[in-house]
Each structure stands twice: as C-alpha cells, then as structure tokens.
Amino acid sequence: MIENGTFKPVIVGFLCNWCSYRAADLAGTSRMGYPSTLRDIRIMCTGRLDPTFVLRALQKGADGVLIMGCHPGQCHYQAGNYKAIRRFALLKRTLRQLGLEEERVQLHWASAAEGVQFAETVARMTEQIKALGPLDWSHNWPNEDPYAVEEATE
Amino acid sequence: MTQKPKLALYWASSCGGCEIAVLGLHEKILDVAAAFDIVFWPCVMDFKYADVEAMEDGEIDVCFFNGAIRNDENAHLAHLLRRKSKVLVAFGACAFGGSMPGLANFYDRDTMFNWIYMDSPTTINPDKVLPQKRYDTPEGELVLPGFWNTVKTLAQVVPVDYFLPGCPPEAQSIEAAVTAIVAGELPPPGSVIGSDVTVCDECKRTKTEKKIKRFYRPQEIIPDPDICLLEQGLFCAGIGTRSGCGAKCPAVGMGCRGCYGPNEGVLDHGAKILTGIASAIDAETAEEVEIILDTLPDPAGYFYRFHLPDSLLRRKARKNGKKQMDGGPQ
To answer: Are residues B317 and A98, on separate chains, in Cβ contact within 8 Å?
Structure first.
C-alpha cells in the first residue's frame, strides 16, 4: 500500500486465540506503540492454519504474512503448534522455490503475557518488508493474450 | 433422421496423450463415432482452422479441449472454439490445471529461450538466433505465434463448462462424460466430472498412523506391496488428490502424482498436498523437521506438478516482471 508517497506494508497476521491474540490485546491495552501494518485474523490455533490462507493473502495483495502462536509445549490443544512447525517448514521451502523472499512469511511465538515481544515482532517485520518493497504478486502475470484484448475492445 | 450432435477435439499445449486416451476407449470409440458427427479433430483427421472459422457460432455441440494455453495460437483456438461450441470441456490435466507445460511457470520466456536456443550443451547458435514472431522472406512474410511468459489454464482464458481431470483422463472417466452428454444428463456448468473423494479412498494399501523419519525417492527402496507408500517414506499426493483413476499408480508401487487435481472447493491443490505431507512428518523441533525435509528435494515441483498455473500464486515471481513484458526477444 502506498500512503502519501511512501510504501506502507500490508501484513496479514494469523494469531492464535489463546496466546498471540491475547499478546496483541495486551500490547493494545498497555498502550504499546507498534506500526499499524498488521491486519490480524484470529484463528483458534496455528495448527488450524491451512497454507491456503497464506497463499491467498499473498495472491490478494498482502506484502507479508505473520503467523503467531503459543510457544512449543504450551499449545492449548497439546500439539497444534507442532503441526504448524512442520507445515511452516515445508511451506517456506515451497515459497522459496516460487521466488518469495524469506522475510515475507514468518512464524513466531508469543505467550499471552508477551505483549512487548508481539509489538517488537510486528515492528521488526514491518522494517524488513519495507526494505524489500511491495510484493504486488498478481503483476507477475500481466495479460499476454492478444485475442482477449481484441474481444475486450470490441 | 435427426442430425447427430457435432463433436470437436483440439489439442493446445499438450503431449498428445489425451488424444490417445480417447482412442483408449477401444471399441467404444465406435459408439462415439456413431453418436457424434466429428467436425474437428486435427490429431487424427484433416481439418483446417478455416473450417472452424467458417462455422456458425455455437454450431459445435461439444468440444473436448486438451492442453494448456502457452502461446497466441493456443489462445486463438481457445477463443475460436469457445465461440463455436455450445459446451466446452477442459479435457485432461493440462487444460484443467496447466499440468506439465505449466511447470514452465517456474521460469519465464527469456530464461527458457536462453537455455533452449543458446546455452544448452547440445546447441550451436553462434549468431544467437531466437524465434521471431515475424520474418520477411522474398516469398512473403512468415509468422509464428507469440510465446507467453506465463502458461495459463483454459479457464483462465475463456469460460469453461466442464472439467475432466486426469493425465490423461482414464477411459472410464471419458466414458462417463460421453454417456452423460449423449443422455443429456450433465451436472451443473462449472462442475468437474468425476467423483469427489481422494485417491486414498480408492487405494487398497493398508493405512495406519503416518510417522515419517525420512523421505525416499522411488529408486532408493523397494516398497512393501501392502502398506501405504507415504508411511514408507515415498512421496504420494493421494491424500490431497481427487480419485477417479482407480488408484493405479499406488497399486504398482509408485506414489500418486496428483494428476486428477484438487477436490471440490479446494483453492490450491499444492497447499492441500503440502498439509497432508507435513502432517506425516515425525518431528517436534524445527531443526528435526529441516533434516527430514532435506530428503524431499523439489517440494514445489511435487505439490504443483499438475496444477501450478491453476494455483493461487500461479507462477514463480518474475524479476522486474513488468519491465520484461515490454521488451524480450519478440
């Protein structure tokens, strides 16, 4: 997103209901300052995060995706975040092959008490993505079909 | 005597396997010939594009279109046959999801041209000649269809009525589609003609809890004939792939490649296979996971083998994508 001539990243955040979403709440109620780049979506567990969600966010125009959950060993559902670790590792390798920079999709942990860590993570990721610039994924396939142009102008 | 419905078959960017699959109906092909009047099938009969152009719009009743859309000629025929056909069927994995030609979306035109026409060890091209769209000869101008950076599926170029998955579609799938068309019992437009369970449902191998400590490539082990291949560490896309094929590949010890594509409602075939494969990994720390994943080379190639152009991200990021569109060798 370009705001007043400067690039302001759009980061879609998938936050676990039990830890990171509460960390975000704590950061807010404690009046901690952090960039307003994050669009947070509450999910019940990082184990629920279908990689489709991440791909959809990137395709729809997000500059980055931040996934946050409970620390390993502290999952509300015992093992959801371990599933997230496995999926994330494989997703990261897949996205690397598709030419996406590492920093654009990140997985971090924050407990409900870690509002400071949450705010710092968002600030750090915002800086990293600012340095990379806009993603603008759908521009990877501009229209190449001369017949489509012809029909559209008819 | 009532007129027979008119049938057209066309191949765009494909290997010809789909045409063979149609002939694979064996003696049932005679029923097809009896039921339909074949008006266009360049693979097996002599038709010209001009024959199709001369037809009325909507004159063809059913068109089986196989192959992905990767150049101007493919697109021309896609638009033409869409206009001339009442029912357009994306026939086979290439028309449906991009399939093998779609793997070119891991590259772009310049990269491919440089390799194919210049850098590959078997090429001698000192003048650095590249294919041109137009070339003037004393006899007149020669033209070639423009080559695209991004391979597209048929549905990304024109509206498609039905999808028939498979690489190639199995005879029973084609038969089901043909029978439905002849009987006039087609599903709602936009449907994929086929079942909606996964390959695992059809696979006869014994399945228990999956805990993989490493992956194997097919040449590295001789798999047990009765146990699930994924449990033995062999990559199998069956967990995220539509059935209809009879699970033939796993039956002979080769993990499912994923050619029947995603199930109903799935936005990204690769993401679903990824989820399934990741769940089978037996590790609790990121480091352990990485060690196991080192035994699975080219994950994106495995997950998007048949549906890269049809996936959410469609292709690999292009460096300076916008700039390249304007320039290039064409």
So the answer is: yes
